[in-house]
UniProtKB/TrEMBL annotation:
UniProt KW Coiled coil keyword: no
Protein name: Heme biosynthesis HemY N-terminal domain-containing protein
Protein purpose: Involved in a late step of protoheme IX synthesis.
Compartments it resides in: Cell inner membrane
Gene3D superfamilies: Tetratricopeptide repeat domain
Pathway stated in the Swiss-Prot or TrEMBL entry: Porphyrin-containing compound metabolism; protoheme biosynthesis
Major localisation: membrane
Location of the HemY N-terminal domain: 26-129
Transmembrane parts of this sequence: 41-62
Amino acid sequence: MIKLFLLLGLLVVGIIAGPFIYDKLGYVLISLGNWTVETTMPGLAVALLLLWLLWEGTKWLLSKAFRLSKGSFDLFGSWQSRRQQVAFTKGLVALDEQNFQEAQKQLEKAAKADAFSGVDLLAAAQAALRLNQTDKARELWQKAARQPATELAATLNLVRLALKQENHAEALRLLEGLHDKHKDHPSVVAHWAEALAGLNRWHELKDKLKGWKKHLGMERYDHWMRAAALGTFAEIASKEGANELKARWQTLPRSARKDPAQQAAYVRQLISQDMHNDAVEALVSFLDAPEPGLLALFKDIRAKQPTAALKKLENWLKQDDANIAVLSALGHLAYNAGEYRLAERVITRRLNLQQDKTDMLLLAQIKEATQQPMQALEIYKQTLSGE
């Protein structure tokens, strides 16, 4: 830069001094209409130099003024940003303190600027929800759902709200509108299953469960498999009758008929159709060993002579006489079949191993049925007092 100014200075000196040295100043005439300028070469050089200096000075002043104004704007912007940050912090603290009105007030201040990637909208929606302002909460979640960072969280809140209001179709619409990268999220999958169940779309639910197993976890997967199977069988029974249900069961693939969830749903539907003899027969054929989910179904069966089932349960007790699930199932099945002595013996044994209010009530009913009213009354008192 210094070299440039030195060269420029030498050039100017040469232009001005040259004509004087050779005693030839030259002549310059500039004519614009009626306006003329006459000067020498050195005069023109000086005029051009002054114009250049004036231009550079003007640029420098404008640049300086712009920087000063930008600094003032940045200062104002920084001040505004700090105010929004303070409001956001106060809002979160108030929300945690359950001061929902203050939280709403502060978070609305923070939400005036798009500075928190939608997190402020989520927090404001929670405050509105706690104040029973459901429509306001929905509006805030809808805004947050348009932010990439909060799309999933906001949509899940909208889905939960729709499910709570039993608007399963709306919940499903929201879930289907999510970006593909979110559709394997455990919460998305769980709510999707709930929405399909609410719409009685059992076949679709069963198909989707095949790919959802690892996302749901075994417990929830089993729950929804049972629900889907039960819903499917209930649909068949209600539309086509119990006999068609039995026929349809036989047409299922062997793997489906071996699935405990499918078996439990089938037996429950037989019981709901008052086909208790068919239900107990099915359970006996399904069970090769005590399986808690199926054992519990014996308690709902009211068959008059469930001989094969009673024998199977008693054989299991010979192998393990402390199996509480088998004792309880046998006691209920025997009582419903009118086998009061057997029922009393096994339920007493079961209660000696572990107290249970349901089985205590069953024992009281057995005492009533066998003309032991005082003992029945004493057991009822124990269940009411929690002893």
